[in-house]
Specification:
The complex is a heterotrimer of chains A (about 260), B (about 300) and C (about 270). Chain B is an all-alpha fold and about 300 residues long. Chain B is built from 13 helices and no strands. Chain C has a single domain, classed as MetI-like fold, CATH 1.10.3720. The chains are: A alpha/beta (about 260), B mainly alpha (about 300), C mainly alpha (about 270).
Chain lengths: ~260, ~300, ~270
């Protein structure tokens, strides 16, 4: 099993006037091929920042320190043009808010198609074809027609499917899902989770909901205030949490936990 | 979208009525005989009788208003003191010159401000951005009539490149310099707001080249409000036109208006006030319709 | 960011200098602004630092006294606009409903007029003097403030402190003026600063056309009135007052922008 992603001593610092905000501090994290790894923590603990730093999408005044080893090479050292090849093609991301992740002025099909146009150089016809296929894959009815629609013509759940389609387009080696269901209602949540499972892609699943994470992932990292406080298999984390923070997270979802375990 | 346009058309009506009421009310602040509002009071007695009947000057004011509305619908605003011609005729004679000046100026303003605003936003905080911001502020602080005088001094009188009167270059330059700053800042703000949106980050996450992110994804969104700019800047463009046309003796509606003010030519003053207000309202409507066309969220209805 | 602070500081210094000069004009002006001192126009010399105008009056003195006039017109005009705008905006935003609709339509109507021409039209029917200039400018520039205040009231009237005030029996008037209004001061102050800048520009345009402050009282605008005739021979007649206008307006813009950035919730 190939070690796809190895994050070593990663820190993300934001420099403001005379303060430094340490959003991520000294984080180590590994994702192996075929795994679904969970990253859990409450809002503001830095998990989204961590995700964005893997994609090297941290804007100034933020700076990234440490190493992000992807299939052997350190992503922090490569040229931006090379990183653009990695993004969307080898590693891609599904964002949290379906209402703001899609560009409102372009058709949904166009937004999926452009991934092919810019990564593979496909023609307009080919890429739209693939876009329709992808929409079908994520269970959107009438994919060919719907591809010509604009984001505001879809519900939240369907927009999130489109986001998944965009992320899955080039069959990435790693899919980062940053709170993909948080902004959706419960029925939609299940559907999206099912969809992600269907894709069988190696995934880094980020959420504040430990029950969700435990139900989906084989290994879990627990994050607090920018640091990893515990890691282990989901069984270990749920049944015998070592860190007090982890224990708190676990106990607050105890009821739902039992349900989640039963339904597996 | 048709619903949106229809709604806007309906909103037009109270606006137009409001404009006529305000103008009518304000014009009646004029001292003296109300006949003066419709024609030169020194006309032949027979004319006076006709005028008094046509505009209902013996009737109570509200009735006068409705009679006036009736006449206005026929585009009858009385006759000018100076030329004796109907006010509408005077205005329409001068309108093309003003439209030419304002149109050309607006076009040039857009040509310069859009790229300037976009680049300022993309390179926020850079030397270009800071320099342009300061220059914008300075331009905004210059009274347009003073700028007109200065340009006239330098380019007409000292350098003799252009004649001081009747030529379009200097008035246009004055309007463009005056209007540039506001629109550049507006465009910059619009672009900055778009660049902050989540979907821009998503576009980068898809591995798209930065130029595609900026010039396809961001720009298309940032340009949408430009259409409404026409509506926003129209009052200022008109305002500038009045003074600039006067200084450079440009034979447009603005110059007509100002000279009417000086000669207390009330029918013309009233006519131009209404006319420009209506043009502004129509301009706003056009801008909103344009917006509806350009923004897919309004153009295409929701489906679920 | 630092640049903004420097600009604001620059603006503040200029603004204070101009204000102090305006207030102290009678003390620091070298000559009487209406005194005809020379037979012909003088270029700037040591005796007349900014030269004289076509009537032989010292421009420096006139520009100082003119500043008094122009700045005070701007201040009063903005106060008038604030009074009207705050009242209208507060009532519209607080009471909402049909009243709000009607008031907003009225505001839209007023915004449809090119204000310069409307002001000119009104002035042409009155005998222009400094007082009606102040009022007319204020009466045609309240709309932006009204919209602003309305927005603030719409947002704030649902907040808890308003509920609390109502619970202890405060009257609507009291709630508007003692509770909500003080919390909306920030954008009003910004609007007032920018409004002053606009008022200076408007007054100068009016006076330039002869429908504002009447000579012999000097204002920066009416000093430019006769300058067009002498543009080539005595350019300083046009340049000096204009520069003062630009400096005043520019400094107000810098200060206004800095205030806007400071008083807005930080990002």
């Amino acid at each position: 099993m190939e070690k796809l992603l190895e994050i070593v001593k990663l820190s993300v610092h934001y420099h403001a006037k005379d303060k430094i905000v340490k959003a991520v501090e000294n984080v180590g994290l590994t994702v192996n091929e075929g795994e679904i790894v969970g990253l859990v923590g409450e809002s503001g603990c830095g998990k989204s920042t961590l995700a964005l730093s893997i994609m090297r999408l941290i804007d100034p005044p933020g700076s990234i320190y440490g190493e992000i080893r992807w299939r052997g090479r350190n992503l922090l050292n490569i040229h931006e043009k090379e990183m653009q090849k990695v993004r969307g093609e080898e590693i891609s991301m599904v964002f949290q808010d379906p209402f703001s992740s899609l560009n409102p002025v372009f058709r949904v099909g166009d937004q999926i198609a452009e991934v092919f146009r810019y990564h593979k150089g496909s023609s307009r016809r080919q890429s739209w074809q693939k876009a329709a296929e992808l929409l079908d894959l994520v269970h959107i009815k009438d994919p060919k027609q719907r591809a010509r629609d604009y984001p505001h013509q879809f519900s939240g759940g369907m927009r999130q499917r489109v986001s998944v389609a965009m992320a899955y387009a080039m069959n990435p080696k790693l899919l980062i899902a940053d709170e993909p269901t948080t902004a959706l209602d419960v029925t939609m949540q299940k559907a999206i989770l099912e969809l992600l499972k269907e894709l069988k892609t190696t995934m880094l699943f980020i959420s504040h909901n430990i029950a969700l994470v435990a139900g989906l992932c084989s290994r879990i990292y627990v994050m607090q205030a920018g640091r990893i406080v515990e890691e282990g298999s989901s069984a270990e984390i749920i049944n015998s949490p070592k860190d007090p923070y982890t224990a708190k997270l676990v106990s607050s979802y105890k009821e739902i936990n039992l349900e989640a375990n039963r339904s597996q | 979208m048709t619903r949106y346009i229809f709604k806007r058309l309906l909103q037009l009506i109270p606006l137009l009525i409001g404009i006529t009421i305000i103008t009518f009310f304000v014009m009646h602040l004029a001292p003296g005989d109300p006949t003066a509002l419709y024609a030169d009071p020194n006309v032949k007695p027979e004319e006076l009788i006709r005028i008094r009947a046509n505009w209902g000057l013996d009737k109570p004011v509200p009735v006068q208003y409705f009679l006036w509305l009736k006449n206005a619908a026929k585009l009858d605003f009385g006759t000018s003191y100076i030329s004796g011609k109907p006010v509408v005729e005077e205005i329409f004679e001068r309108l093309p010159a003003t439209v030419l000046l304002m149109g050309l100026s607006f076009f040039l303003i857009l040509l310069i401000s859009i790229p300037a605003g976009v680049i300022s936003a993309v390179r926020k905080g850079s030397v270009f951005d800071n320099a342009f911001t300061i220059v914008s502020f300075v331009f905004m602080s210059i009274p347009s009539f003073w700028l007109a005088l200065v340009l006239m001094l330098i380019f007409s009188l000292k350098l003799e490149w252009f004649p001081p009167f009747g030529n379009i270059v200097l008035p246009c330059a004055t309007m463009v310099i005056s209007g540039l700053a506001g629109i550049t800042r507006y465009q910059r703000a619009s672009m900055l707001e778009v660049l902050n949106q989540e979907y821009i980050k998503v576009a980068r996450a898809k591995g798209l080249p930065e130029r595609v992110v900026i010039y396809k994804h961001a720009l298309r969104n940032a340009l949408i409000p430009i259409v409404t700019l026409l509506g926003l800047t129209l009052p200022d463009l008109f305002g500038g036109a009045f003074i600039i046309e006067t200084i450079f003796a440009w034979p447009g509606m603005g110059r007509l208006g100002v000279s009417a003010i000086f000669s207390r030519n009330y029918p013309v003053i009233m006519g131009i006030t209404i006319f420009t207000a209506v043009l502004i309202v129509l301009g706003n409507l056009l801008a909103d319709v344009g917006y509806a066309i350009v923004d897919p969220r309004i153009r295409y209805a929701k489906k679920e | 960011m630092l640049k903004r602070n420097k600009l604001a500081l620059f603006g503040l210094i200029i603004l204070c200098s101009l204000s102090i000069a305006a207030v102290l004009a009678p003390v620091i002006a070298p000559y009487d602004p209406s005194e005809i001192m020379e037979n012909e126009i003088q270029r700037p010399t040591v005796k007349h630092f900014f030269g004289t105008d076509d009537l032989g009056r010292d421009i420096l003195s006139r520009v100082l006294y003119g500043g008094r006039i122009s700045l005070s017109v701007a201040v009063v005009a903005v106060l008038v606009a604030l009074t009207i705008g705050i009242l209208i905006g507060a009532i519209s935003g607080y009471y909402g409903g049909i009243l709000d609709e009607i008031i907003m339509r009225f505001t839209d109507v007023m915004l449809s007029f090119p204000s310069i021409f409307l002001i000119l039209a009104i002035q042409s029917m009155l005998t222009p003097n400094i007082y009606n200039v102040m009022i007319v400018i204020g009466a045609t520039s309240w709309m932006g403030i009204a919209r602003l205040v309305r927005g603030e009231f719409l947002a704030l009237k649902e907040r808890e402190f308003v509920e609390a005030a109502r619970a202890i029996g405060a009257s609507n008037m009291r709630i508007i003026f003692r509770h909500i209004l003080p919390n909306s001061l920030a954008p009003i102050i910004v609007a007032a600063t920018l409004g002053m800048a606009g008022a200076i520009l408007t007054e100068s345009a009016l006076s330039f056309l002869g429908l504002g402050v009447q000579p012999p009282t000097p204002s920066w605008g009416n000093m430019l009135m006769d300058s067009q005739t002498y543009l080539l021979d005595a350019p300083w007649m046009a340049i000096i007052p204009g520069l003062f206008i630009v400096m005043a307006v520019l400094s107000l813009y810098f200060v206004g922008e800095a205030l806007r950035e400071r008083l807005n919730p930080k990002e």
